[in-house]
Amino acid sequence: MPALPRRPTRPSALTAACALAAAATLAPVPAPARAEVAPRAAASPAWTARLERACAAPSREFAAKAERIARWAALEHRLFRGHEVGLDGRIWRFGNTETENEPLDDATRREIDTRDTRSWERVVTYWENGLGLGRSPALSAQVALDAINLPRLALDPAIGRISAEWLGRIPQLVQQAAIANRPWSAAFVSHVMRQADLGPAFAYSEMHATFIADAMSQTFADLAEPGPDAGARSGSAPRAFRGCPPETTSLRPGDLLCFTRDATVGPLSFAQLAEVHRTAAGEAAARGTAAQASRTAFPAHCDVVTRVDAAARRVEVVGGNAWQSVTRRTMRLDARGRLAPALRIPAEETAEQEDRCRSAPECGNLNRKRYLVVLRLR
């Protein structure tokens, strides 16, 4: 999302003071680094077979959390009155968006006992609860300055100062501007995991790549291979998720279905994703340290699987900051409960081909993504 335009006017003392106060409690979100992808996957057939068996096995240690994760994601969509995308990949219901003053669903508000009343307030809660921040999302000083300059539109020409009504709205305007300027989809997932009581078993983060890396590290550990964080994980709490290939994994409620957001950066398939982590692990082992986060970071997005209808071959997923809302998508499954192949963009399809395909009826829909990994509860 683009940053708000900067105004050339010099901020007043009031503006500067408010900006500094806002920025003092907030930290900017770093942009994800480029993950370096090996030219080919090096997984052996035996390793792949063990992985598929592990991913198909029933969840054990964290099985009880699946229902809570799915329930909280579904509740957040209902509360937010968010968008809905149908089987045809089109938005058929356009709901509230991130910075609006539209009311949240009142019945759901009472059910979950929240003080939030507006959609933008709920996004602030995702940041606050998901990442353990103060009562504002991550925000830079310049964003605060840009946001606080907005009330200049309400200058009273008769007295030459900001009216009392607009002065009182400055804190809200700062938060709304911050929301519009910072992707919050990973904060949404982190919030859902906290509500589901995953505790230290989840890698809460403002970047999806962080908890993808955490799950992939657990995958290597489960299959007796060192993961990227193996050096730092000894004695740590068990992880809730492992990474599984979407091509062979039947979806379940509580799963996270993740895709890459940029075909020019990072891995384009599960095999490439696994090789990125295998390479990072090898380099870390050679140094005797944990893998560097920059080696496994890339632009990504994860949705929570909330409902699976095996008989109808349908799955529902909910994600935050999807078209600036909490969005529910309904997608087709194959006969074995895996995401339908037509919705999975193949690794060999170039970014240019993907762009051209968007205008074609057979693939130009919002459900067609470069799905990389299913994060499966262990």
| Global outline | globular
Span of the ends, CA to CA: 34 Å
DSSP, total strands: 10
Give the radius of gyration. 22 Å
Sequence stretches where pLDDT stays below 50 over 5 or more residues: 1-41, 135-156, 226-235
**Can you count the helices?**
13
Q: What helical percentage do the residues reach? A: 25-40%
**Biggest sheet details:** 8 strands, mixed
Helix and strand content put the structural class at alpha+beta
Strand order of the largest sheet: 2-1-9-8-7-6-10-5
- Please provide the ordered H/E string of secondary-structure elements: HHHEEHHHEEHHHHHEEHEEEHE
Look at the structure and give the mean pLDDT. Answer: 77
What proportion strand? 5-15%
Explain what the structure shows.
The protein is an alpha+beta fold and about 375 residues long. The chain has 13 helices and 10 strands. It has helices spanning about 15-25, 45-55, 65-80, 105-110, 120-130, 140-150, 165-170, 170-180, 185-195, 210-220, 230-235, 270-285, 350-355; strands spanning about 85, 90-95, 155, 160, 240-245, 255-260, 300-310, 315-320, 325-330, 370-375. It has an 8-stranded mixed sheet. Helix 3 (about 65-80) packs across helix 9 (about 185-195) and helix 5 (about 120-130) packs across helix 9 (about 185-195).
Key features of this structure:
disordered N terminus; alpha+beta; two-stranded antiparallel ribbon; 13 helices
